[in-house]
Amino acid sequence: MLKGNLATRPFYNERLVRGALVVALAVAVLWAALNVITLVSLSQQSTMLSDRIRNEGLRASGARTEADTVRRGLNAADLQRVSGAATEANALIERRTFSWTGLFNQLETTLPADVRLVEVQPQSDDSGRLILSLTVVSRKIEDLDEFIRGLEATGAFSGVVSRSDEALDDGSIASTLQGYYALAARPAVAASEPSNVSVTPPRTPEVPR
After folding, report:
1. How far apart are CA 80 and CA 87, in angstroms?
2. What pLDDT score was predicted for residue 136?
3. What is the rounded distance in angstroms from the CA atom of residue 33 to the CA atom of residue 40?
4. Domain ranges, residue 141
5. Number of domains observed in the structure of the chain
6. What is the spatial order of strands in the sheet that 157-167 belongs to?
7. Cα–Cα distance between 126 and 142 in angstroms, integer?
8. Considering the domain boundaries, does residue 129 fall inside one?
9. Nearest Cα to 115, choosing from 208, 189, 43, 198?
10. Cα–Cα distance between 85 and 199 in angstroms, integer?
11. Which residues of the chain have pLDDT under 70?
12. Is 150 part of a structural domain of the chain?
């Protein structure tokens, strides 16, 4: 009877070892293939991005060159004329929406008893804001100050100041006031009010006290 000692005679399963090696090799090959595919894809993407960056740079350079050409071709005098025309157009639009009735209603409600309104003249500053020049005659300077405070209290007038004061023979004071006026839209039903009011109207009659 043959007896064996497994402790002194180790047992090897060669088929299991070869199978494990084949699986490991297959995994390594697959991993390497995936790395190659990823590397190729990233390389293609990098090439595409580089081409896109180069094209965008060329387009930006062309746009800058075109802008410089246009800028050099512009004439300062032409730009000034265009700016002046735009300001004039804005002033025309404001005149068509200007309500003389609303303006005189506000003046009448704020005019003190001892102040007479002689003339109203609308103007525009460099930014196109409407300025009203008011010529008034008052008995005392305190009456004039009351009128100015009343105008600004309406919220439609701002920055009202007296540009000149002149003492008349009867002791009254003729003053020229200037201030910004916020345009009020013309009511659609105000058919009795002309739509083409001149920017410098004739001398207006005195407002009744």
Report:
1. 11
2. 92
3. 11
4. 99-181
5. 2
6. 115-124, 130-138, 173-181, 157-167
7. 32
8. yes
9. 208
10. 16
11. 1-13, 71, 73-98, 183-209
12. yes
Q: Which residue has the tokens 């003053």?
A: 175
pLDDT of residue 174: 93
Residues 65, 139 within the same domain:
no
Backbone phi and psi for residue 115, each to the nearest 5 degrees, phi listed first: -125, 130
Residue 23 lies in a domain: yes
Asked if 115 and 138 count as a contact pair (C-beta separation under 8 A), the reply is: yes
Residue 155, Ramachandran bin (φ over 0: left; ψ between -120 and 50: alpha; else beta):
left
pTM of the entire structure?
0.44
Residues 6 or more apart in contact with residue 190 via CB below 8 angstroms: 99, 101
55 and 108 inside one domain = no
| Three-state SS at 166 | strand
E-strand stretches of 72-144: 115-124, 130-138
pLDDT at 74: 62
Nearest to 167 by CA among 140, 196, 134: 140
pLDDT at 1: 52
Token look-up 């300062």 returns: 76
